[in-house]
């Protein structure tokens, strides 16, 4: 996601904890036996205790939704292919929409809502650890009326809809194990009126017209975290092409005036060139497609949705924004977070790659940008008070996470040297491709590559609420006056 100083962050717009009433889905027999094996209602992330679910490893999602613009209702089914990671008599799923029915391996299953965010499912027969099974959840409701943790994330008007947000989006439109650490393949079908277009992650594999509606199906070749899944429906200007064997798609909403559409199409067309440049530093782009979609809705941020990042209306001068979201395809999408506390790894890397782009395109060096950021903020600045290695749930998108995260990357570059630094980044994204990363794993790889002990370095940059000393061991040498 793009840093909030540059683009207004619209994610948490309501009072924390406000939730909309009226989520009365079908509720049948309760799971009450204390001896039953019940998967936990959260995956274990301390920032968002109800995110994800225990006992489940989702392998694949088959989402089939229909959206009605006039009524602003969404109905559909999600079929999850799941592997049990423990014995299960019951398990949780994350979903805000009212539930109509649940079936496990084709058999009707009891279900109820222990909270507005959770669906507790009791299959007709117990599930053994290691068993692969399917869950089919049917639902319908008005996602624009639903909230979670103070977030009202559904973006739509009567002409366009786009499912994009972070850290939560999936429960507004499909049943999920909603945490970045459980990556799965995505197969998304969206049915809308015939005149509407649909775009989603991955490759469009079919478009079927039936009467007054059309169903658009997209399939992703690589696994993704649930918050990165997206779709947009409306009327759009589209350009397609191929560069270096990589197909690209540029999509801009027709809600925007013609001059703005052309400027934003020009920006989106730069995406493939950005990919090609970043590959020089990071290695092969990790996915089978790339693109960018500019919505006409009033959204104040961009988001790194896998293979198809989404953007607000901007224009030709925002190449840095494309660099940020495309850098996330490596850092955050291909290599996802095991826990939200390590968000600096995603946002710091993407912001650092903005600095690197400037450095290689006639601007100041990333080292000079580091020193500029360092000098302009006195020790008393609140910028230094946040411990970005564990910022807390309310501050995962704080400016310090982005900028001090980027400063950490450049300081590390100074500390271990050019060759070791780029070897580190290339090995990180190659060895953990389609997998997960943590701060500890990153530090250990940095130590392995460089042959240096870096505990103190990472502690100073990530764990202290004070300004690092201007010392070489901290990757700094900013005491020279700029005049």
Describe this structure in words.
The chain is an alpha+beta fold and 483 residues long. Among the domains are: 56-238, tricorn interacting facor f3 domain (Immunoglobulin-like); 339-474, Neutral Protease, domain 2 (Orthogonal Bundle). It contains nine helices and 21 strands. An eight-stranded mixed beta sheet has the order 5-4-8-2-1-11-14-13, with no helix packed on it. The longest helix has 18 residues, at 343-360. The radius of gyration is 23 Å and the shape is globular.
What are the key terms here?
single chain, 483 residues, alpha+beta, Immunoglobulin-like, Neutral Protease, domain 2, eight-stranded mixed sheet, 9 helices
Low-confidence stretches: 4-31
Mean pLDDT: 93
Helix/strand structural class: alpha+beta
SS summary, helix count: 9
CATH topology annotation of the domain at 56-238: Immunoglobulin-like
Q: H/E order of the elements? A: EEEEEEEEEEEEEEEEEHHEEHEHHHHEHH
> Span from first to last CA?
35 Å
Largest sheet: 8 strands, mixed
Oligomer: single chain
Q: Please name the fourth-level CATH homologous superfamily of the domain at 56-238.
A: tricorn interacting facor f3 domain
How many beta strands in the DSSP annotation? 21
Helix content: 10-25%
The Rg value, from CA coordinates, equals: 23 Å
So what's the overall shape? globular
Q: Architecture of the domain at 56-238, CATH level 2?
A: Sandwich
Give me the side-by-side strand order of the main sheet.
Answer: 5-4-8-2-1-11-14-13
Q: What share of the residues does DSSP label as strand, in percent?
A: 25-35%
Cofactor: Zn(2+)
Signal peptide: 1-29
InterPro entries: Aminopeptidase_N-like_N, Aminopeptidase_N-like_N_sf, Peptidase_M1, Peptidase_M1_aminopeptidases, Peptidase_M1_dom, Peptidase_M4/M1_CTD_sf
Family: Belongs to the peptidase M1 family.
